[in-house]
Amino acid sequence: MDKVGAARSPRRLGLVERLRWTMRGLLVAVLSQAGSVVLWTVTVVTLATLVVGIGFLILPIVVNAVRGLAGFHRRTAREWSGVAIDVPYRHTAADGAYDTAGTFAQCRRLLSDPATWRDILWMTLNAPVGLVLGLLPAACVAYGLNGMFVTPFLWESMGPHWGFGVTWFITDQGEANLAIPQGLLFVVLGLLIAPALGRLHIRFNRALLAPTRNARLTLRVEHLTETRSDAAEAQAAELRRIERDLHDGAQARLVLLGMKLGFADTQLETNPALVRQLLAEAMESSSQALTELRDLVRGIHPPVLAERGLDGAVRALAVALAIPAEVSVDLPGRPQPPIESAAYFVIAEALANVTKHSGANHASIRLWHAGGRLRAQVGDNGRGGAKAEGGSGLRGLQRRLAAFDGELDISSPVGGPTLVTMEIPCEL
């Protein structure tokens, strides 16, 4: 168990948290029956109908539903106890066009993925395991509450004809009153075991839903292949941008500068006034070319980043922003130069999006290092609706970070606010 789960030891949990774990157990028990049993049955029927061809049409849909249920358990594992369960799938159920040929190809890919069969095994075992581990704490609490608040009073009013719960073994009112401490014991027992059984179910889920060692290596190879391709494409795009900026900017001005100086040389004896004008224009052109070259260099590696580090460079971006920006930086050291540069450009592009598209009147920048990862958040109070899909600039930022095994998460509901979170593994 990771640090979060370890920090929240069952011995340190309060009453509210234990009640919450009890309710979570009820949810697990319901999902183990209404989710796992139903989906397991549908999956088995679908696999059985593959031989007649019908199963191929619905298998991607069924697998997508199974992975959705497994994904819910992965999310709850992280939210409830801080246990991260990685996604093991090689292909998504939505890969490819949904037609006859595409569906056959999809089914072949899904059935060849070991994670698909591990999900089926997980559903098979989760039906009894989830029911027992999830229902036991709630059953103890319910049984205890019955003994504390129901049995003594109903025995008094209805006598031995009331045969429910602990009253099966009760013969008089005195014994009925003993149900109160017995019920309290069951309530305490249920609350005590609820967190432990909940975490036990999470460990069970991690054992079957997390990638195996071989699957992890395969996913790692696929990820490195993809990020290498993205990095090569990003590098090629950056070289094209530099070439375009040089060709359209500084190079054109330097060519014009040479032409003016050459013409001034021919007019030096006959028209000194024109020569002075041409020299003045040449000086202006050289100054503009120098400015454009400096801007180009800043786009490759900003001098402020080299001189003042990521902390100072981010604060400089905030000062230059058109709207007020709150900055919070907690970096006890400097990241490696490539990671520092990537983080700077991601933050700069995110701030540029705030200015261009958000309509916000306030922004926030937070930068810190924790758990071996450099983290940054750029937020605004604008209109929201930002998405990485559709070839937007945010997708380019994701690809830039992927080259460093980094991640970019975007939370931007319509109406705002927007929060762009970046994480890059690194040591300071």
TrEMBL record:
Q: Where is the Signal transduction histidine kinase subgroup 3 dimerisation and phosphoacceptor domain?
A: 238-305
Q: Quote the EC number.
A: 2.7.13.3
Entry's Pfam families? HisKA_3 (PF07730), Sensor (PF13796)
Q: What is this protein called?
A: histidine kinase
Reaction catalysis annotation: ATP + protein L-histidine = ADP + protein N-phospho-L-histidine
Give a GO cellular-component term. Answer: membrane
Q: Which residues cross the membrane?
A: 21-41, 47-66, 120-145, 178-198
Q: Which keywords has UniProt assigned to this entry?
A: ATP-binding, Kinase, Membrane, Nucleotide-binding, Phosphoprotein, Transferase, Transmembrane, Transmembrane helix, Two-component regulatory system
Q: What class of enzyme is it?
A: transferase
The entry lists its GO molecular-function terms as: ATP binding; phosphorelay sensor kinase activity; protein dimerization activity
Superkingdom of the source?
Answer: Bacteria
Ranges for domain Putative sensor come to 28-209
